[in-house]
């Protein structure tokens, strides 16, 4: 494959018919850098171009008539193909025909004249200094993402610094409360998205400090989904659910023999019934 020949075939404006240009481009693919020794078979060109073999033959004939291609050294394909009856025709492409003029080709100079951006090739007397070209550094998508990630990272770091260290309310349980009652209360607050702070824990511990049944106070707040504790709602000896005095409180302190007397058999009876 010749990059030079294919580049010429793409840029030339001498051959304008679409099928002929396609055949010329594929033929240049088999030539050397000088456009010579291209000997693909008709079937290969038909496969490359997607045209029928007959159409390829017609377009090659047109290219020969335009003197864009000509028959080359037939000994070259003979050196590669042993079957003499199936030798393809070797073509040379005229890369000078139809080539575009390079910048400066029509000027009174040798070779090409380089194009300058904001710079004078030679300094003329009295000529003003050319302005400095602008320096643009376009921000690519990759750099933009890196910048965003850096900004986000700095923002997260700043937020982390501003926030207090992670606080575990279970570590500051009131001294007179059980771990279970306190853990249930903390979980309830967390479920309500109102986690306990150190200051809140200290205030709750102060409220429960002198209460006879702190677990009942915590359980009542947990069951009622209260964010705070209310020791006055649970009086000593009352139920944590309804605050009413329990019928089973201080039963061991009641004198059950009051108003009774023993009979001759050692059984209790109401005083005065034996008379």
Automatic annotation (TrEMBL):
It comes from the Bacteria. Residues 249-259 have a biased composition (Basic and acidic residues). Residues 145-174, 222-275 are annotated as: Disordered. Pfam families: HTH_36. This is Helix-turn-helix domain-containing protein. The lineage of its organism: Bacteria, Pseudomonadati, Pseudomonadota, Gammaproteobacteria, Pseudomonadales.
């Amino acid at each position: 494959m010749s990059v030079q020949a294919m580049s010429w075939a793409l840029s030339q404006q001498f051959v304008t018919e679409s099928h002929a240009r396609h055949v010329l481009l594929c033929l240049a693919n088999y030539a050397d850098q000088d456009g010579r020794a291209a000997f693909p078979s008709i079937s290969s060109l038909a496969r490359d171009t997607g045209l029928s073999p007959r159409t390829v033959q017609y377009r090659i004939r047109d290219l020969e008539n335009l003197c864009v291609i000509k028959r080359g050294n037939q000994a070259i394909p003979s050196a590669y193909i042993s079957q003499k009856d199936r030798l393809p025709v070797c073509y040379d492409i005229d890369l000078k025909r139809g080539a575009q003029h390079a910048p400066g080709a029509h000027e009174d100079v040798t070779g090409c004249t380089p194009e300058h951006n904001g710079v004078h090739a030679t300094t003329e007397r009295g000529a003003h200094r050319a302005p400095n070209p602008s320096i643009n550094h376009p921000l690519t998508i990759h750099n933009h993402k890196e910048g965003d990630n850096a900004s986000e990272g700095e923002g997260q770091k700043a937020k982390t610094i501003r926030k207090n260290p992670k606080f575990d309310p279970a570590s500051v349980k009131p001294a007179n409360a059980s771990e279970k009652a306190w853990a249930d209360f903390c979980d309830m607050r967390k479920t309500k998205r109102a986690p306990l702070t150190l200051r809140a824990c200290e205030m709750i511990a102060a409220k429960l400090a002198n209460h006879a049944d702190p677990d009942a106070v915590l359980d009542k707040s947990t069951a009622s989904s209260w964010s705070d504790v209310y020791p006055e709602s649970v009086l000593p000896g009352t139920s944590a659910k309804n605050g009413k005095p329990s019928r089973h409180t201080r039963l061991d302190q009641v004198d059950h023999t009051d108003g009774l007397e023993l009979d001759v058999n050692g059984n209790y009876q109401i005083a005065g019934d034996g008379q």
